[in-house]
Amino acid sequence: MLNIQDPTEARKIIRNNQYDKQTAGTASQYVQGNVCILPSKYSANFATFCKKNPKPCPLIGLGAKGDPKLRDLGDIDIRTDVPKYRVWKKGKIVDEPLDIKKYWNEDLVTFILGCSMSFELPLIEAGIEIQHIKNNTTVPMYRTSIDCKPEGQFLGKMVVSMRPLSTKDTITSIEICSKYPSVHGAPIHFGNPDEIGVKDIMKPEYGDPPISFKNNEIPVFWACGVTPQLILEKSKPDFCITHKPGCMLITDKLNSDLATS
Amino acid sequence: MLNIQDPTEARKIIRNNQYDKQTAGTASQYVQGNVCILPSKYSANFATFCKKNPKPCPLIGLGAKGDPKLRDLGDIDIRTDVPKYRVWKKGKIVDEPLDIKKYWNEDLVTFILGCSMSFELPLIEAGIEIQHIKNNTTVPMYRTSIDCKPEGQFLGKMVVSMRPLSTKDTITSIEICSKYPSVHGAPIHFGNPDEIGVKDIMKPEYGDPPISFKNNEIPVFWACGVTPQLILEKSKPDFCITHKPGCMLITDKLNSDLATS
Known about the structure:
homodimer; alpha+beta; PSTPO5379-like; PSTPO5379-like fold; 2 domains; seven-stranded antiparallel beta sheet; four-stranded antiparallel beta sheet; globular
């Protein structure tokens, strides 16, 4: 873990290719983002796809065509400021570089989508124990049977993350997360996993399996920022770049600034 | 049902003792209140009790000692403006009059507490079907094992109201109700009734039994404004006056003004 709480300092290390792992816990007061970079011919449809599916794909930043800077989110150069990238051609990963200087071109458009780390901090501050954080594992994530609303070539199923919670903490987490619509908002489901097409709660498709469900704990599901990667895999644009899951873009925006009230 | 949507008009009829039944659906855009009137020697403790138990006892209005007017809530005279009252002596009901002119005195203090009708309207507007409203029955209410936080002589268990909802509607109702802290706020529990000491969901202690639980519906429980009557029954003040359950005070305050954001 990169235990640096200042976002500028953290990005400096990442920018110099001195850190290539997950960013959970780094600059934890600050918003981290999922990254999707696409050729401009896809950008109108992808932007609309995000707008139509705000729970899995909450758009928090958008770069100008050909501009690697994201001034609204901080002193950011998207070519270097992510610990590890994925380069995709027609839905297949062809490279996982530490920077994308050699892939960048004047036609690319950058999309930054909100991430669950921004709501986990206020949950913890409200006294809710988050199992995967306590156990230092990756949150379990599942493919569901829920269709995203399609736009042009962009379509596919929603991915969800899951946290085991008591009934009381489920209610509190819905109350808190509903104030954070730009980072997935309130959970989309709780209880019976089968209702959203999750067959085996102990076998997530991404991340680590849950440790256990205590006494009265139930599974609580949030729309997940891994969804767009599944959409890109299925929609097969000629070319695109994303972050490697877990290796997020660290911004200068405070999580608390995302709260709607 | 008194189908009048203007609160002043509705109160005029009630004031003239021309209506003595429940007020559900009357002036439905406006806040209705639970009423507790106590001798001044109890008022400090009861006010603190309400402040300590905001979910069952959300204080939305407080009269000056001896003053039957509640100017903050509208052109209200608490001696005449409730369809039916209950007069209590040492925890027992001794009268159910249409007005309390003969009981009023210079030592009484009026407390008005928020009521679930204020959050049911935004739930319906969000497309959620409320079973007891659709079937024109009274919401089922249950005594629980949850202790209110005591203050002086005021203590006892919380009463909850229950509405059967799908998982999806449960999440939406938590999101909406968390914006209405002054009318019981978010539900306090859902799912297993036994966890809060409710033994038989089909046998509520107050109101009508639920009709049924459809497919994926679960019981969702809100703190209930009947709680203070149970507290008064148990705490046995020498003398007090309440409304008869269901026969609420209609105010000039809009429900929408209660939303926190």
